[in-house]
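fold-stage: in
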Amino acid sequence: MTNILKRLDNKENKSVSVHGRACPKIFLALVAVFIFFGFVRFSTANAAMLTIACYEDYRPYSYVDNKGQVVGMLVDFWILWAEKNQIELTFLPGPLTRSLDRIKTGEADIMIGLFRSEDRTKYLDFSTPMIDIQTNLYVVQKMEIDSVEELGDTIVGVIENDYVVEYLSQKYPDVRIKTFPGSAQVVKNALAGRISAYALDFPNAIFLLAENDSLLKFKRVQTLYTEKLRAGVKKGNSQLMGLINSGRKGISKQEIETILSKWGLSPPPLIVQYRVWIIGFILLLLAACIGFASYSMKLKSRMGRLKSGNRPFKKEEWLALISQGENDWLEFKSSMRWNLATLKTDKVLEAVIVKTISAFMNAKGGTLLIGVDDRGEVLGIESDYNTFQKKPDRDGFMLKLSSLVGQNMGRQSHKFISTEIQSIDGRDICRITIKPGERPVFIKEKGKESFYIRAGAASVPLSLSESHEYISSRW
């Protein structure tokens, strides 16, 4: 019995010894499993969360609104991209230089959008193109220059570390530049008179001028370049770049156009996109109708002489012009400043004259007849003459008209306008012939700047977004 108990006791001790040695191994295995799954969960979580460095004042692409929210066209694009790829995003707004530093240090994963340059490729990899953006040179209205070569010693304001800095230093090394943290600071200093020129993207510059009700203070003189906006990541992060590009393919053209339209950056109309085909079709049509075209050109030549005012006055030609009635190219006004209903001088009528001239300049030109009512009846402008104390005659009328144009549209607008006054049946009529303008023309209206174009037989105002779209396709 004793021997049996000893054997049982030894067997039990052996069993305990075996289990004692197995426990540490099982424990280590469990720890390894927990660490592995924890690492997997950690990696997955990090893959599903990305931080985007973005601009704080790059309207309408990326900026911080009055509520402190990051908004803009690029922001909408990345939100859509994140939804399609089930990724959580965090936006970090700041100046361009700060945003680039965030990518370099790893504080942010993606730069929301920027141009690819030789200097930036040293520390960034770039995605496939997102959209095309135009960068322009703007100067104060009074400067009589047409290109960057004519700047001389004029200092050009630019954004610090912007692509335009590298562009100007390489292509125009003699141009003097002054850098600012962001576009808002560039425009602020320009409006304060500290700089007379700056280079910014379109329509970022227009948005900032409009916010300050100063669209007429600066003019675009030259498009420096058109580049493709791309996302940027820290150099060598091929995995993230692959995720960005593959996710970009999942966004349709229609979805992109919806975002563009929301921010007034609609793609050009079909007539612009397919202009080559349309021009080809027109040329073929003209070739097939060359006989009729010959007659049409003679008729157009005659009408061109009629509208140019270069020929001696012929009453029948003026009457023929009036008989056409108002249309896209022709408008009548009873007077320039004398209200025939209230029998008083009316500045509203003066504003209407300026609005009409600007609408013709923003469109394809046309003719304005003053002293003719809507029905085509010749009333004359003698009532306007009587409102001028010093010169109650044609000279006084012409001086006032010239003053209205210069004060409301800028002196440079005069070169697109020719004016003559002729008498028909003893009543003077003023004919103003307007050529298409080389640049957009904005006018002051009720304390704000307005943009008009011709539509049918009327001058119609466009909203800010409509103006941007029209300007981008017209100029």
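fold-stage: in (second)
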Amino acid sequence: MRILLDTHALIWFLTDSPKLPTKIRALLLASDSELFFSSVSVLEVAIKHSLKPDLMPCCLPEEVRSFAESSAICELAFESRHAVKIGELPWLHRDPFDRMLIAQAMCEELNLLSHDENVIRYGGSIIGF
């Protein structure tokens, strides 16, 4: 299964957070799972960390990128065709980072793993937990 991790799912996975359910962690560690993280997630962490560093004290943007790469998670760059897809999405959610991840997942035919109920509302290949 090809899985794009939402930003919070990526952070929880990389930091071994108990917020990530055991069943989901097992899915991510399964031998047939191919994992991806988005450059959008690094951007989101960078912006949120610069605005409120105390909210993400253990997850600097360079740490997220470094951890993901060392865990053999493939980076997915945000491209113009992903931006075009955002314009086609219904307005179920207004968070620009989440909308970018949803569009990337759709364009790349990836399953998007998310805990965000607003993201899960998009259905399709969203794996909600």
